[in-house]
Amino acid sequence: MSQRIIYTAADGNMCVIVPAPEAQWTDVMKTIPNGVDYEVVDVSEVPSDRTFRNAWVHAKGQSNKVGVDLPKAKEIVHTKRRERRQIELAPLDQLININVAKPQTVATIEAQRQVIRDKYAKIQIDIDSAPGVPELKLIIEGL
């Protein structure tokens, strides 16, 4: 089938129903919760890029049926930024634990950790000031 059903679940997340090729529409419609506004859209109206999937919103009445909630998208990028920062800090964290009795070495390692923290603090500022999804996408690609 070249159509999808989209709706917003009670938890605020947008759901996309992808009917099986052999499915009957009457059976597919039974999967939609009672009382929920839904829309049948062409598959081309559902983004193929799933980077911000958890920030998708059902944009009822608009030409683009699937939009992106910018604050949710920013939180997705923040999470990825934190994950990348932790990966970079992990080896230095281990060195600190190994060299805890060597103040000179610990100071050197701490300076390296601060460089990483500063780098990711700048990325956080970039995320917070991003005006839209394309800019957030570029930030993710740069991580």
Give your account of this protein's structure.
This protein has 143 residues and is α+β, with helices and mostly antiparallel strands. The chain has 2 domains: 3-68, no CATH class; 70-142. The chain is built from 4 helices and 5 strands; from the N terminus they run E-E-H-E-E-E-H-H-H. The protein has helices at 25-29, 70-98, 103-129, 133-142, and strands at residues 3-8, 14-17, 38-42, 56-58, 66-68. Strand 1 and strand 2 form a beta hairpin. Helix 2 (70-98) packs parallel to helix 4. It is elongated and about 70 Å long. The model has no long low-confidence stretch (mean pLDDT 92).
In short:
It contains 4 helices and 5 strands.
Mean pLDDT: 92
Shape by Cα distribution: elongated
Helix content: 40-55%
The total tally of domains equals 2
Order of helices and strands: EEHEEEHHH
Computed Rg: 22 Å
Number of helices: 4
- What portion of residues belong to β-strands? 5-15%
Oligomer: single chain
Q: Biggest sheet: strands side by side, in what order?
A: 2-1-3
Low confidence ranges: none
Largest sheet: 3 strands, antiparallel
User: Could you say which structural class the secondary elements and strand pairing correspond to?
Assistant: alpha+beta
Compute the number of strand runs. 5
How far is it from the N-terminal to the C-terminal residue, by CA? 36 Å
List keywords for this structure.
143 residues, 5 strands, 4 helices, alpha+beta
